[in-house]
Amino acid sequence: MLSHDKIWAAIDRLAERHQLTPSGLARRAGLDPTSFNKSKRTGPDGRMRWPSTESISKVLEATGTGIDQFMDLIEPGAGYAGSNGAFQQQSGSIPLLGFAQAGAGGFFDDGGFPAGQGWDVVEFPASPAQKSGVYALEVQGDSMKPLYRDGDILLVEPGAQVRRGDRVVVKTREGEVMAKVLARQSAKSIELISLNPEHPNRSFDMADVEWIARIIWASQ
């Protein structure tokens, strides 16, 4: 059941996911920076206020967050509902895709969650696979050696907060998919360190990044 506390908590989680304060999230969405302040969440009579549907719509658009993903933030652990062709994850199995295929269109939604057809399924009972929206990517080629080798399976958690030093998978708007180490991220740019010293480090404008997801496990 929806409540004031759950909706406001979801907004706070969304801000944290994008390494923003609630004020920063409001600013990114073009809202008054005080829109999500604690003082705006209650009225003069002490009763809780609802955030407007317009403000929620704007922050979802500004962060590339789907309504199903926002519902997951309202009810953490309930599982990614999936809609409009999203991959339906079954208990004990996770979607699997090769890195080469991941660069093509139609396999992910705007938030980097599995969508559409063409995914394989791999059984994976270990606890990391029980997180909502987790999927697997199969390493192809030697560009990620010595850390990851051809055929290794990486478990990826889209939407998770990423920090400096995390191993991440990044997809650019041009369709390039890569596994790197996050060196630095700001609202405007991202810097990545290559896992293979023979390959250059990379940097992108955030406008050129479709999504970034944290690697939580590898089959090594």
Topology of this protein?
Layout: H1 4-17, H2 22-28, H3 53-63, H4 67-74, E1 93-98, H5 99-102, E2 120-123, E3 135-138, E4 153-158, E5 167-172, E6 177-185, E7 189-194, E8 202-205, E9 209-218
Parallel strand pairs: 1-3
Antiparallel strand pairs: 1-2, 3-4, 4-9, 5-6, 5-9, 6-7, 7-8
CATH homologous superfamily of the largest domain?
Answer: Umud Fragment, subunit A
CATH top level assignment of the largest domain:
Mainly Beta
CATH fold topology of the largest domain: Umud Fragment, subunit A
Total individual domains: 2
Rg, Å, rounded: 18 Å
Which CATH architecture of the largest domain would you pick?
Ribbon
What's the N-to-C terminus distance?
A: 42 Å
Strands of the largest sheet, in order across it? Answer: 2-1-3-4-9-5-6-7-8
Content-based structural category: alpha+beta
| Number of discrete helical segments | 5
What is the helix fraction of residues, given as a range?
10-25%
Backbone shape: elongated
Main beta sheet: strand number and arrangement? 9 strands, mixed
- Please report the total strand number as a whole number: 9
Low-confidence stretches: 78-91
Mean pLDDT across every amino acid position: 80
Domain Peptidase S24/S26A/S26B/S26C: 95-216
Region (Disordered): 24-50
GO molecular function: DNA binding
Keywords: DNA-binding, Transcription, Transcription regulation
Descriptive account of the structure:
The chain is an alpha+beta fold. It has 2 domains: 4-74, lambda repressor-like DNA-binding domains (434 Repressor (Amino-terminal Domain), Orthogonal Bundle); 93-218, Umud Fragment, subunit A. It is built from 5 helices and 9 strands; from the N terminus they run ααααβαββββββββ. Strand 6 (177-185) and strand 7 (189-194) form a beta hairpin. Helix 1 packs across helix 4. The longest helix is centred in the first third of the chain and has 14 residues, at 4-17.
